[in-house]
Amino acid sequence: MSLLEKINNNSAVIGIIGLGYVGLPLALEFANKKFKVIGFDNDPKKPVFLNRGQSYIKHINAGRIKDAVDKMFFSATDDFTRLPEADAIIICVPTPLDEHREPDVSYIVNSGKVIAQYLRKDQLVVLESSTYPGTTDEILLPMFEQIQSPESNSALNTHNSKFKVGEDFYLAFSPEREDPNNPDFNTSTIPKVVGGVTPKCLEIAKALYDKIIVKTVPVSSTRAAEATKLLENIYRSVNIALVNEMKMVLDRMDIDVWEVIEAAKTKPFGFHAFYPGPGLGGHCIPIDPFYLTWKAHEYDISTKFIELAGEINTMQPYYVVEKSMEVLNKFKKSLNGSKVLILGASYKKDIDDMRESPTLKLIEIFAEKGAEIDYNDPYVPKLWKMRKYNYDLASVELTKENLAKYDLVVLSTDHTAYDYKFIAENSKIVIDTRNAFERNGVNADNVFKA
Questions:
Q1: Are both 214 and 311 inside the same structural domain?
Q2: What is the pLDDT of residues 351-405, one digit of tens each?
Q3: DSSP structure string for 103-166
Q4: Residue 255: other Cβ atoms inside 10 A
Q5: 352 close to 413: Cβ distance less than 8 angstroms
Q6: Are residues 176 and 296 in the same domain?
Q7: Do 193 and 268 belong together in one domain?
C-alpha cells in the first residue's frame, strides 16, 4: 500500500519529533483523528509523563493525553531507533538564536542526522520549526539524498543508486502556527501553509494535513512556506515596535498611548490595533525576524526595518526599569536596595510558557541595579532553567502582608487570575506595563503605566 493510500485510510503511522508546545498538540490532533502516533523526545522524562497520561504543559489538558494513550492512538518514547515505524515524520524542535543573534539550527541538523540513519522508502518528512528560507532544501535534503537505496546492494543491481526526493521519500515544510491557550483558535482550526520539495511531496504532505486541519494552503516551494512564517512574525514584530516607540514618545508628551490606540482602532479600515508591553516573548516574534536578517546578508541585503524593530522591542525591559526608577524617585526612594515584586513570568497571559519572556530580562536588569527581586505567577510555581537564564526563584503568594513588603510591584504579564483591585489596594507603588489595571476598572493614584 502506498503512503498516500495509508494517509487516506488513516492507517499511516505518524512520528512527531519534539513534544513541546508545538509537537504535543499536533500529536494529539492526529490521535484524535484515529491515527497511530509515536512521539519522540530526547528528554527521557517526557515520555514517562505522557505514557502515564500526564501533562507538563499547563494549557494542554491531561485528559486529552490520557484518552489518546488509553485508546492506544498515542505513545511517547526517547528511542529513536523506532523511527522506521513511522510513515510520516514531523520535526517540531526549537530554533533559537545564539549569543550573536544568529540562527541556531543545531536541533534541526541533529534531528536530520538521526532521521537519515533510519529513513526508509516511502516515508514523508516534514519540518515545522521556524527557520530561514532554504533550510529544508539546503540542510535536510542533502542529508537524505546521500542515503543508499536498498536496491543498490542487490546482486541484481550493479548501480550505486541513492534515495531520490519525490520518488523514494518525500520532504516538505509546513510552519507551525500555535498560539497557546488562544480561546478562538487551536491546532486544527488554524489554516496550514504547506510547501513541498517536489509536486509529489506537496501532494502527500497536503493530504496528511488535510486530515486534521480545517484548511491547507499549498505554496510553490519549501522556501515560500519558510518565508511565509517569517513574514507573519516580522509583521507583528514591526507593528509592536511601532506602538512601543509611540508609547515612549507619547509618554514624554503626557499622552496616554492606550487611549490613543483605543480611539484609532475605531477606524473600520486601514488600521489594526497592536499594543505595547515590557518586551517581546514567545519562541517566534523575538526570534524569527533575525532568521531573515541573517539569511539576507547572504544576498548582500541589509534589513534595516526589521533590525530597527528588533532594537526597539529589545530595549523595552530597559525602558520599564528606567520608568520604575523615575517613579521611585518621586517617592524619594532609590531602586538600589528596593524590594521589587514582578507579577507574571510567562511571556503572555494565562499560560506557563516562559520562552523569551521579557520578565526574565527584567529580573536581570533590576538585579543589576541593586534591587531585591521576587516574582509571582499562578502558572509558573518555580523558574526553571532556560538557555540564557537560571534563576533560583519560586513564586511568592499574593497576600496583603507580602504585597506590603515590596517597595515596587511591576506587572509584566496580565494574567486573568490576578485581582487587580486587591493588588493596587495593598501595594505601595505599581508599575503597569499592560494597562491591565485600568482595563479592569482600577484607577488608583499608586498605579503608573510603563
A1: no
A2: 999 999 999 999 999 999 999 999 999 999 999 888 789 999 999 999 999 999 9
A3: B--HHHHHHHHHHHHH--TTEEEEE-S---TTHIIIIIHHHHHTSBPGGGGSTT--S--B--BT
A4: 12
A5: no
A6: no
A7: no
Annotated catalytic residue, options 284, 327, 328, 430: 284
User: Residue 284: inside a domain, yes or no?
Assistant: yes
Name the phi and psi angles at 53, rounded to 5.
80, 25
Domain assignment present for 148: yes
pLDDT digits (tens, 9 = 90+) for 258-309: 999 999 999 999 999 999 999 999 888 888 899 999 999 999 999 999 999 9
Q: Are strands 372-376 and 13-17 parallel, antiparallel or unpaired?
A: unpaired
Contacts of 153 (CB under 8 A, 6+ apart): none
Q: Nearest 5°: CA angle at 24, between 37 and 69?
A: 50
Residue 263 grid cell: 480611539
Whether 284 is catalytic: yes
For residues 305 and 165, membership in a common domain is answered with no
Q: Are residues 356 and 208 in the same domain?
A: no
